[in-house]
Every structure is written in structure tokens, then in C-alpha cells.
TrEMBL record:
Enzyme class: transferase
Compartment list: Cytoplasm
Gene name in the database record: murA
Pfam families membership: EPSP_synthase
Residue positions where 2-(S-cysteinyl)pyruvic acid O-phosphothioketal is found in the record: C117
Domain of life per record: Bacteria
Pathway assigned in UniProt: Cell wall biogenesis; peptidoglycan biosynthesis
Keywords: Cell cycle, Cell division, Cell shape, Cell wall biogenesis/degradation, Cytoplasm, Peptidoglycan synthesis, Pyruvate, Transferase
Record Gene3D superfamilies: Enolpyruvate transferase domain
Family that this chain belongs to: Belongs to the EPSP synthase family. MurA subfamily.
The protein, known as: UDP-N-acetylglucosamine 1-carboxyvinyltransferase
Active-site residues, as the UniProt record annotates them: C117
CDD domains named among the record's database cross-references: UdpNAET (cd01555)
Amino acid sequence: MDKIIIEGGNKLIGEVNISGFKNAALPIIIGTVLSGDKCRIENLPMISDVSNLTKIMGMLGADVKLDRNGILDIDTNNIEKCVLIDEITRKMRASYYLLGAGLSRFKEVEVLYPGGCDIGVRPIDQHIKGFEALGAKVEIDHGVIKCSAEKLVGSKIYLDVVSVGATINIMMAATMAEGTTIIENAAKEPHIVDVANFINTMGGDIRGAGTDVIKINGVEKLHGCNYSVIPDQIEAGTYMIMAAGTKGNLLIKNVIPVHLEPVTAKLREVGVEVIEYGDSIQIDGDFDLKNVNIKTLPYPGFPTDLQQPMTALLSTVKGTSIVTETVSESRFKYIDELKRMGADISVDGSTAIVKGVDKLMGAEVRATDLRAGAALVVAGLMAEGTTAIGEIQHIERGYEDLVFKLKKIGANVKKV
Ligand SMILES: CC(=O)N[C@H]1[C@@H](OP(=O)(O)OP(=O)(O)OC[C@H]2O[C@@H](n3ccc(=O)[nH]c3=O)[C@H](O)[C@@H]2O)O[C@H](CO)[C@@H](O)[C@@H]1O
Ligand SMILES: C=C(OP(=O)(O)O)C(=O)O
């Protein structure tokens, strides 16, 4: 089994380039189904979720060519139906977007219940509520989700919880429905806007993405397009935290600073210097850091996907920090791994009480999920001695060339 080995203690210094955003790239790749035409998608991250999804698109019948620079040429004209009962769809969460896209184009879709990070129950009741409101029939049978409709008709849908996945899936399903669909209490994450912009570039008519009310006017047909995915604010935030944790000085390039504001604000509160430029951010972490409290919230709140790396950083900050997780049901499993490295953290329900220790010590640990892996990398970079992180397939779902990028900025790290 592959491992990442880190000799801690080196400051991260230099420049790092941020890749395209996994959580925008995946629905956009699936969204090409809507066009039934040729699309070129650029700035895709070279991560296992993208390579697996390209395989899935090929299995459905699309012509796909993904080059090493993150450019995908895809023609979905040859897809005849959106039915795929194969374990490969369980390697990621985002395969559930086949439901919205398949329903919209073929009025019929069958896929397995999705996989993704083990961070709680992760229900899809809001996706189903949306599909049903548009006129679809939805059945779940032995882990297979089947949706079908005679026709889809626009409707008003109020989401009971703010859900990124349900917002995007309903947007996709409504794109070619008859009439207008309104999603209320929609998620506002930057990738919602990116997916809406992509669908509009294909001829869709979606308004209000980025606010909590999204209006989708159904169109008859979409066409192919060229589109470039936004940068990954979670990857960028992870490097910001790593630079802070190693007291480094890092220029993080190819980012949209406004997407990072919740992270920038929190790091400034911790005592890190953050300078925002047009499309890059400079981090100087060579200061005494202060304890802070964190509460995860839907965008523009502090992102749940950075709760784990941020908690790793706080584990060596003097004083007590309180971390409250309100988005994911169960996202503290990695804390037992941090404790193996000497962290003093106790968990009470959705709250972690982090008492800063003087230093972490390298240890043998395992990534329990994607961002748990990122948290352990942060911890390993800060720790004294050697950290060996196992189960790195989780990390490879979401971080392009992590070891290569880290080496270039001074980390003593290798994959074995
Ligand atoms: C591929 C992708 O984009 N993954 C992201 C997406 O996951 P995902 O789309 O699964 O997350 P959601 O935004 O849907 O989930 C937010 C909360 O709503 C709940 N919920 C969700 C749907 C539903 O039908 N019913 C329900 O109760 C979930 O259990 C969770 O507590 O957003 C999460 C929250 O920002 C991120 O952590 C993930 O990185
Ligand atoms: C939870 C995450 O991913 P996914 O939803 O793809 O499992 C994540 O990116 O942190």
C-alpha cells in the first residue's frame, strides 16, 4: 500500500500553483451529457476522481480524451441511455450528478448510490424531493437509484437543508424542463456559480446562482462549448494552512481570492499575514499564532472541507480553540490519528476542544478520508520526526500532485 512519508520541520517557502476545483470539475464533466454534443473542458485537476469519472463517461458511451494538462475533449452525442450499474460510480460522491443530467436528457436514469468521503450519513432526500417536484418518479432498490419521468415540468422547490449536491442536481434536471424552476434556500458555493455559468455557456438559462434563490428557465436544447473550471479554493486553503503551520512564506497562485475570504479572515485572526493580489495570495506564517474558535457553515461561512486541516494547525497553537462542525454529520474521525501524534483534542458531539500542545511528534497514521488526509499532511509538516500516512488513495481523490508540489516548496516528503 502506498504511503506518504514526511520528515517534519521544514518551512514551506516559494510558489505553488493551484489546480482546477474538484467539486466544480466533476459536475461540469457530467453536465456535458446535457449537451449531447462536443465540449472541451479545461483546467481539470489531475486527480483520481477525474480519471475515474472520465472512465465512467466512456462506459456510458461518450467519446473522451483527457490529456495530461487537464484538458478534456468529450462528445456525449453517442450516449444512448444513462444506465450504469458499476462499482466505479461508488468511488466518488459526484457520480450522483448523473441523476440530474440523465433525467434531464433521457428522462430515465439508473445508477448506484454514490460513495465519497465517510463523513456521516450523507442522505440525498433533498435531491429526490427536487426531482419529484419536477415530475419524476424515484425508486431506491438494493442500492440502485432509478429515476424516470414522462416529462419534466418546472416547479418551486424549497430545500430543507442548504445542500450543494441537491442544488446542482436540481439545476441540471431543470435545465431542459418545461417552464421555470425556482430553487429556494439554494447553496451559494462558488462551484454552484461555475456549474450554472457552464450550463449557460451551453445555451441554458439559469439566473441567481450564488444567491439563495436560483431561477432556471427550461430551454429545449443545449449545445457543446469550451469551458475552463475555476481554481480549487479548498486546495488553496490547504496550502495556506500548511504555510501557516510551518511558519513559511508562500505565494499561492491561480486562485480567486474572494472565494477564500472565510479562510483568509480566520487565518488573519490566528495571527498569520495574508496579502491578497488579483489572482494570488501571499501567506507569511512566521508569527506567534493565537487560539481561535471555528464554526463550519455553508458558503460564505468557514468551509467544512477545511475544518480538518485547520484543526491540525490549531493543535499546536497555544491556548484552547473550539471547533464546531455544523455541516457534516461526522467529521472528527481523524482526531484519533492526530492524538497519536501528541495532539490534545477531545470531541463532544459536533464540537472539538483543541488544547494547543508545544509540538506534535511524527507517527504512523492513516487517512480516514480526503481532508483527514490533508489534516495529517499539515500535522506531519509541523511535527518533529517522521510521519507515515497510509490509505493515501483518499488524498489522491482531491489533491493533484501533492508530493511534487510540496517538494518544490521545501517539504521533505516522498511517496513510497
Ligand atoms: C462532490 C462535492 O461537491 N462534495 C462537496 C459537497 O458534498 P454534498 O453535496 O454531499 O454535501 P451537501 O451540501 O449536500 O451536504 C450538506 C449537508 O446537508 C445534508 N443533506 C444533503 C443533501 C440531502 O439531500 N439531504 C441532507 O440532509 C448533508 O447530510 C450535510 O449535512 O458539499 C459538501 C458541503 O460543502 C462538501 O463537504 C463536499 O466536499
Ligand atoms: C467531502 C469531500 O468530497 P466528496 O463529497 O467528494 O466525498 C471533500 O472534497 O472534502
